[in-house]
Amino acid sequence: MDEDAGALPKKQDFSEWYNELLWRAEIMDVRYPVKGLYVWFPYGFAIRKFVYQRLRELLDRDHKETLFPLLIPEQEFMKEAEHIKGFEDEVYWVTHGGTTPLDVKLALRPTSETAIYPMFALWVRSHADLPIKIYQVVNTFRYETKQTRPMIRAREITSFMESHTVHATWDEAEAQVESEIALTREFYQSLCIPIIISKRPDWDKFPGADYTIAVDTIMPNGKTLQIGTVHHLGDHFSRTFSIQYEDKNGEQKVAFQTCYGISERCIAALISVHGDDKGLILPPVVATLQAVIVPITIGKRHDDVIAAAEKLKIDLEANGFRVKLDARDMRPGAKYYWWELRGVPLRLELGPRDLDAGKAMAVKRCGGKTTISFATAADDVTRVLGEITEDIREKAEEHMKSHLCTVDSMDALNSALNAGKVVVVHWCRERGCGDAIEEKANSSLLGTDVRSDYIEATDGPCIICGKPGKATLVGRTY
RNA sequence: GGGGUAGUAGGGUAGCCUGGUCCAUCCUAGAGCGUUUGGGACGCUUUGACGGCGGUUCGAAUCCGCCCUACCCCA
């Protein structure tokens, strides 16, 4: 037998592994004939559904979900100068209605500030209208010129959660930024994805923002992936779009705003951080199927085994688990590989021997075997899924810890980066030294004000000029 | 942004320069039948393609033009 039969490329060949896995595990089809646009397979879309369900649950605590149009008229889009500068090279324009050229070109939203804020100007009248906290999950379009990759750099972002808030004061907006950061932490905690939070350097902040807080994770090849950003917009947009309110004293005041975004990159991270050489590994919260029952059917016992498996399935489903009974006419081994590739966290094997013992073999996707008994199936599965979640989280945290380090010289920075690490250095926050670090180490300054559970962020002398510096995260990015 | 290479069935390849064939070929692909089944079973039968549009030609996967897409290298 061919040992390599059906094998994925190894995860250490990350790029190949990722592309092949998306195809084989039926997450995305890259063959759509427009560059940078991809098709969700039903299985991948189901993962998306559970991930975004989790995100919505968190947001719904104090945001309201809305939906704004895809098209933005040119005048509105062009109002905020800095904002335009950041996006003008990557906007798609609708220029015709049928064969008739449009009087006013319409932009396909690259992000929705300029769609939403003119409406905020109408909605906000009094201090009693504030705060406003809304979000939407939409597709956005950017004409990317760099190499596109499914879910990581696409021309259509299919699943962009963007939240937009309006507040009476700058401080209140800042508090909102912190609350969005906490929400992001909680979201990624539930996906078992470790993150690092930092404040992007000024030249890399969101066009039109006071400051940008970014959330990054580390991919298997050591590159960082930005999987969330929170922006304090100050009053830049509210001045441009005249978002004003009348305060308690009857005075007109300009409002302050934040916005915040998470895209399907969170799914790219989910797949990449947890997967292994055999395929996907999905944390139970977002697994399309949390357990698959594979009946081992031989000869006369066939009907008995199937009946017991069906009973187990019904029992587990009644307790709220997402379960499938795989009764296809395939060899059991082939089914194991099939579901391992697709990341199902728990496999329950049920054959004649197990039937007699009143138990099923429980094999964890992340490694390890145990048994569950029919009598206490729901409790046993709850316990085992909990163990799996913890295992997945621990492995992901290990990966992050082992890919983070602190250095105090350019040489050490270069060798750490070449070894696939993300690095904390000290930087004086002068643009010149920042450019020097980026250029000499062929890397990006991810941010200052580093917040991470996995590495200490202390002050120290700038590694370029030696003046007092602050902890700064440096990495090679997607 | 600049340059290069390539698109042939579900996937992988040959064929192209030098236009023509009866059966291209390999596989973890599809369909069908049978025997199997505690870690990727096997046998037999069979389906299916030249990225798109246009041109040259009696005849195009092959030659010409435009477009689309993918990958690699350099900035």
Based on DSSP secondary structure assignment, what is the total number of beta strands? 24
Second CATH tier, the architecture of the largest domain? 2-Layer Sandwich
User: What Rg do the Cα atoms give?
Assistant: 25 Å
Category by helix and strand content? alpha+beta
Helix content: 25-40%
Features:
single chain, 3 domains, BirA Bifunctional Protein, domain 2, 478 residues, RNA-binding, 14 helices, alpha+beta, Translation Initiation Factor IF3, twelve-stranded mixed β-sheet, Rossmann fold, five-stranded mixed β-sheet, 35% helix
Could you explain the architecture of this structure?
The protein is an alpha+beta fold. Strands 3, 7, 8, 9, 10, 11, 14, 20, 21, 22, 23 and 24 form a twelve-stranded mixed beta sheet that branches. The chain has 14 helices and 24 strands. It binds one RNA strand of 75 nucleotides through residues 1-2, 4-7, 23, 30-31, 33-35, 145, 147, 294, 296-299, 329-338, 349, 351-354, 361.
Layout of helices and strands:
Blueprint: H1 14-24, E1 28-29, E2 39-40, H2 42-59, E3 64-65, E4 71-73, H3 74-77, H4 81-87, E5 93-97, E6 100-108, H5 113-123, E7 132-141, E8 156-167, H6 170-190, E9 196-199, E10 211-218, E11 224-234, H7 236-240, E12 244-246, E13 252-254, E14 256-262, H8 265-274, E15 291-295, H9 302-318, E16 323-325, H10 332-341, E17 346-350, H11 352-357, E18 359-364, E19 369-373, H12 377-402, E20 404-406, H13 410-418, E21 422-427, H14 431-440, E22 444-451, E23 460-461, E24 468-475
Parallel strand pairs: 3-7, 15-16, 15-17, 20-21
Antiparallel strand pairs: 1-2, 4-6, 5-6, 7-8, 8-14, 9-10, 9-22, 10-11, 11-14, 12-13, 17-18, 18-19, 21-24, 22-24, 23-24
Helix pairs in contact: 2-6
This protein binds one RNA strand of 75 nucleotides through residues 1-2, 4-7, 23, 30-31, 33-35, 145, 147, 294, 296-299, 329-338, 349, 351-354, 361.
